[in-house]
Structure of Probable GTP-binding protein EngB:
Amino acid sequence: MFENRPDRDAEIVLLGRSNVGKSTLMREITGHDFTTGGKPGVTRQPNHYDWASESFVVTDLPGFGFMSGVEEDRQESIKTDIVRYIEEHADAILAGVIVLDGKAAVDIIDRHTTEEEIPHAVELYGFLQELGIPPVLAVNKMDKVDDRDERLGDIADRFGLVPPWEQWRDTIAPITAKKGDIDALNQAVRVHLEDAKRDDLKKFF
Ligand SMILES: Nc1nc2c(ncn2[C@@H]2O[C@H](COP(=O)(O)OP(=O)(O)OP(=O)(O)O)[C@@H](O)[C@H]2O)c(=O)[nH]1
Ligand SMILES: [Mg+2]
Protein backbone atom coordinates (compact mmCIF):
# COMPACT_ATOMS: atom_id res chain seq x y z
CA MET A 1 0.00 0.00 0.00
CA PHE A 2 1.12 3.56 -0.60
CA GLU A 3 1.65 5.31 2.70
CA ASN A 4 3.55 8.53 2.27
CA ARG A 5 0.70 10.82 1.23
CA PRO A 6 0.77 14.21 2.93
CA ASP A 7 -2.52 15.09 4.60
CA ARG A 8 -4.08 17.55 2.13
CA ASP A 9 -7.69 18.22 1.23
CA ALA A 10 -7.22 18.85 -2.51
CA GLU A 11 -5.29 16.69 -4.96
CA ILE A 12 -4.58 16.14 -8.63
CA VAL A 13 -3.32 12.67 -9.58
CA LEU A 14 -1.28 11.61 -12.61
CA LEU A 15 -1.95 8.07 -13.80
CA GLY A 16 -0.96 5.94 -16.74
CA ARG A 17 1.12 3.12 -18.09
CA SER A 18 4.80 2.97 -17.37
CA ASN A 19 7.04 5.15 -19.48
CA VAL A 20 4.33 7.46 -20.87
CA GLY A 21 5.95 10.49 -19.25
CA LYS A 22 4.10 10.97 -15.92
CA SER A 23 7.20 11.99 -13.99
CA THR A 24 8.31 14.28 -16.81
CA LEU A 25 4.89 15.95 -16.68
CA MET A 26 5.13 16.14 -12.88
CA ARG A 27 8.40 18.02 -13.26
CA GLU A 28 6.80 20.49 -15.67
CA ILE A 29 3.81 21.08 -13.38
CA THR A 30 5.80 21.52 -10.18
CA GLY A 31 9.18 22.77 -11.37
CA HIS A 32 10.74 20.07 -9.20
CA ASP A 33 13.01 17.37 -10.64
CA PHE A 34 11.65 13.84 -10.32
CA THR A 35 13.46 10.77 -11.51
CA THR A 36 12.50 9.93 -15.06
CA GLY A 37 13.95 7.30 -17.30
CA GLY A 38 13.92 5.39 -20.51
CA LYS A 39 13.06 2.13 -18.81
CA PRO A 40 9.46 1.44 -17.72
CA GLY A 41 8.81 1.01 -14.00
CA VAL A 42 11.03 3.83 -12.73
CA THR A 43 8.45 5.16 -10.26
CA ARG A 44 7.48 2.47 -7.73
CA GLN A 45 6.01 4.65 -4.97
CA PRO A 46 3.94 7.79 -5.47
CA ASN A 47 5.78 11.08 -5.85
CA HIS A 48 3.92 13.77 -3.94
CA TYR A 49 4.49 17.47 -4.35
CA ASP A 50 2.59 19.64 -1.95
CA TRP A 51 2.04 23.27 -1.22
CA ALA A 52 1.59 23.63 2.52
CA SER A 53 0.00 27.05 2.20
CA GLU A 54 -2.85 25.74 0.04
CA SER A 55 -3.46 22.25 1.40
CA PHE A 56 -2.92 20.97 -2.13
CA VAL A 57 -0.91 18.04 -3.45
CA VAL A 58 -0.06 16.77 -6.93
CA THR A 59 0.67 13.04 -7.03
CA ASP A 60 2.55 11.07 -9.67
CA LEU A 61 1.42 7.48 -9.20
CA PRO A 62 3.49 4.48 -10.29
CA GLY A 63 2.86 3.22 -13.80
CA PHE A 64 0.70 0.20 -14.46
CA GLY A 65 0.94 -2.33 -17.25
CA PHE A 66 4.16 -3.84 -18.43
CA MET A 67 7.29 -2.98 -16.48
CA SER A 68 10.64 -4.42 -17.42
CA GLY A 69 12.18 -6.56 -14.70
CA VAL A 70 9.07 -6.42 -12.51
CA GLU A 71 7.25 -9.67 -11.81
CA GLU A 72 3.62 -10.07 -12.86
CA ASP A 73 2.35 -10.47 -9.27
CA ARG A 74 4.07 -7.28 -8.30
CA GLN A 75 2.56 -5.47 -11.31
CA GLU A 76 -0.92 -6.65 -10.29
CA SER A 77 -0.39 -5.50 -6.73
CA ILE A 78 0.71 -2.05 -7.92
CA LYS A 79 -2.52 -1.83 -9.90
CA THR A 80 -4.55 -2.81 -6.83
CA ASP A 81 -2.71 -0.20 -4.77
CA ILE A 82 -3.49 2.48 -7.34
CA VAL A 83 -7.19 1.61 -7.34
CA ARG A 84 -7.29 1.64 -3.53
CA TYR A 85 -5.44 4.93 -3.38
CA ILE A 86 -7.95 6.57 -5.71
CA GLU A 87 -10.93 5.15 -3.81
CA GLU A 88 -9.54 6.24 -0.49
CA HIS A 89 -8.83 9.81 -1.59
CA ALA A 90 -11.70 10.28 -4.05
CA ASP A 91 -13.19 13.17 -2.07
CA ALA A 92 -9.97 15.16 -2.32
CA ILE A 93 -9.10 14.33 -5.94
CA LEU A 94 -10.30 17.14 -8.20
CA ALA A 95 -9.11 15.60 -11.49
CA GLY A 96 -7.50 12.34 -12.54
CA VAL A 97 -5.00 12.94 -15.31
CA ILE A 98 -4.51 9.77 -17.37
CA VAL A 99 -1.27 10.22 -19.29
CA LEU A 100 -1.10 8.43 -22.65
CA ASP A 101 1.72 8.01 -25.16
CA GLY A 102 0.18 9.72 -28.18
CA LYS A 103 2.03 7.55 -30.63
CA ALA A 104 1.40 4.16 -29.00
CA ALA A 105 -1.93 4.52 -27.17
CA VAL A 106 -4.34 3.48 -29.92
CA ASP A 107 -2.37 0.35 -30.82
CA ILE A 108 -2.05 -0.66 -27.17
CA ILE A 109 -5.75 -0.11 -26.51
CA ASP A 110 -6.77 -2.05 -29.63
CA ARG A 111 -4.43 -4.90 -28.77
CA HIS A 112 -6.03 -5.24 -25.33
CA THR A 113 -9.64 -4.93 -26.44
CA THR A 114 -11.25 -8.36 -26.50
CA GLU A 115 -14.49 -9.84 -25.23
CA GLU A 116 -12.90 -10.62 -21.88
CA GLU A 117 -10.57 -7.68 -21.54
CA ILE A 118 -10.86 -3.91 -21.25
CA PRO A 119 -7.57 -2.01 -21.64
CA HIS A 120 -6.28 -0.58 -18.35
CA ALA A 121 -6.49 3.06 -19.45
CA VAL A 122 -10.10 2.71 -20.59
CA GLU A 123 -11.00 0.84 -17.42
CA LEU A 124 -9.38 3.52 -15.29
CA TYR A 125 -11.24 6.24 -17.18
CA GLY A 126 -14.58 4.61 -16.34
CA PHE A 127 -13.49 3.99 -12.77
CA LEU A 128 -12.70 7.69 -12.23
CA GLN A 129 -16.06 8.66 -13.69
CA GLU A 130 -17.87 6.23 -11.38
CA LEU A 131 -16.20 7.88 -8.40
CA GLY A 132 -17.19 11.33 -9.64
CA ILE A 133 -13.60 12.31 -10.44
CA PRO A 134 -13.30 14.14 -13.77
CA PRO A 135 -10.83 12.24 -15.99
CA VAL A 136 -8.45 14.18 -18.24
CA LEU A 137 -6.53 12.40 -21.00
CA ALA A 138 -3.09 14.01 -21.29
CA VAL A 139 -1.98 12.77 -24.69
CA ASN A 140 1.79 13.08 -24.34
CA LYS A 141 4.74 12.79 -26.75
CA MET A 142 2.84 14.68 -29.44
CA ASP A 143 6.27 15.63 -30.86
CA LYS A 144 6.38 12.08 -32.25
CA VAL A 145 2.92 12.20 -33.87
CA ASP A 146 2.51 13.50 -37.44
CA ASP A 147 -1.19 12.86 -38.08
CA ARG A 148 -2.27 14.89 -35.06
CA ASP A 149 -6.01 15.39 -35.58
CA GLU A 150 -6.57 11.90 -36.86
CA ARG A 151 -4.68 10.40 -33.94
CA LEU A 152 -6.52 12.49 -31.38
CA GLY A 153 -9.82 11.56 -33.04
CA ASP A 154 -8.97 7.85 -32.71
CA ILE A 155 -8.10 8.31 -29.05
CA ALA A 156 -11.39 10.15 -28.43
CA ASP A 157 -13.25 7.29 -30.10
CA ARG A 158 -11.55 4.63 -27.96
CA PHE A 159 -12.73 6.38 -24.79
CA GLY A 160 -16.28 6.72 -26.09
CA LEU A 161 -15.97 10.44 -26.87
CA VAL A 162 -17.51 11.24 -30.24
CA PRO A 163 -14.93 12.87 -32.57
CA PRO A 164 -13.89 15.51 -33.52
CA TRP A 165 -11.59 15.65 -30.49
CA GLU A 166 -11.74 19.45 -30.39
CA GLN A 167 -15.18 19.17 -28.78
CA TRP A 168 -13.53 17.60 -25.75
CA ARG A 169 -10.84 20.05 -24.74
CA ASP A 170 -11.77 19.69 -21.05
CA THR A 171 -10.99 15.99 -21.38
CA ILE A 172 -8.41 15.59 -24.17
CA ALA A 173 -5.19 17.57 -23.83
CA PRO A 174 -2.39 17.02 -26.39
CA ILE A 175 0.98 17.83 -24.80
CA THR A 176 4.73 17.40 -25.21
CA ALA A 177 5.87 17.28 -21.59
CA LYS A 178 9.53 16.84 -22.47
CA LYS A 179 9.59 20.24 -24.16
CA GLY A 180 7.45 21.92 -21.54
CA ASP A 181 4.46 22.23 -23.86
CA ILE A 182 1.63 21.45 -21.43
CA ASP A 183 -0.73 24.40 -22.03
CA ALA A 184 -3.62 22.23 -23.18
CA LEU A 185 -3.45 20.23 -19.95
CA ASN A 186 -3.26 23.34 -17.79
CA GLN A 187 -6.39 24.67 -19.48
CA ALA A 188 -8.29 21.43 -19.01
CA VAL A 189 -7.32 21.17 -15.34
CA ARG A 190 -8.31 24.79 -14.72
CA VAL A 191 -11.81 24.05 -16.00
CA HIS A 192 -12.18 21.24 -13.47
CA LEU A 193 -10.79 23.37 -10.65
CA GLU A 194 -13.37 26.01 -11.52
CA ASP A 195 -16.12 23.38 -11.52
CA ALA A 196 -14.95 22.32 -8.05
CA LYS A 197 -15.06 25.99 -6.97
CA ARG A 198 -11.33 25.94 -6.32
CA ASP A 199 -10.28 28.98 -8.31
CA ASP A 200 -7.60 29.53 -5.66
CA LEU A 201 -5.69 26.55 -7.08
CA LYS A 202 -5.76 27.71 -10.71
CA LYS A 203 -2.50 29.58 -10.22
CA PHE A 204 -0.64 26.25 -10.16
CA PHE A 205 -1.77 25.41 -13.72
N1 LIG B 1 9.50 12.28 -27.28
C1 LIG B 1 9.07 12.52 -26.04
N2 LIG B 1 9.53 11.80 -25.00
C2 LIG B 1 9.05 12.07 -23.76
C3 LIG B 1 8.08 13.09 -23.54
N3 LIG B 1 7.79 13.11 -22.22
C4 LIG B 1 8.55 12.14 -21.64
N4 LIG B 1 9.33 11.52 -22.56
C5 LIG B 1 10.32 10.45 -22.32
O1 LIG B 1 9.66 9.24 -21.96
C6 LIG B 1 10.48 8.49 -21.05
C7 LIG B 1 9.67 8.11 -19.82
O2 LIG B 1 9.38 9.27 -19.08
P1 LIG B 1 8.98 9.23 -17.53
O3 LIG B 1 8.53 10.60 -17.18
O4 LIG B 1 10.03 8.60 -16.72
O5 LIG B 1 7.73 8.22 -17.59
P2 LIG B 1 6.82 7.65 -16.40
O6 LIG B 1 5.45 7.59 -16.95
O7 LIG B 1 7.03 8.44 -15.16
O8 LIG B 1 7.39 6.19 -16.23
P3 LIG B 1 7.27 5.19 -14.94
O9 LIG B 1 7.78 5.93 -13.75
O10 LIG B 1 8.10 4.05 -15.35
O11 LIG B 1 5.83 4.82 -14.81
C8 LIG B 1 11.69 9.36 -20.73
O12 LIG B 1 12.76 8.93 -21.56
C9 LIG B 1 11.22 10.75 -21.12
O13 LIG B 1 12.28 11.61 -21.50
C10 LIG B 1 7.61 13.85 -24.67
O14 LIG B 1 6.79 14.75 -24.58
N5 LIG B 1 8.14 13.51 -25.89
MG1 LIG C 1 7.67 7.90 -13.31
In short: DSSP finds six helices and six strands in the chain.
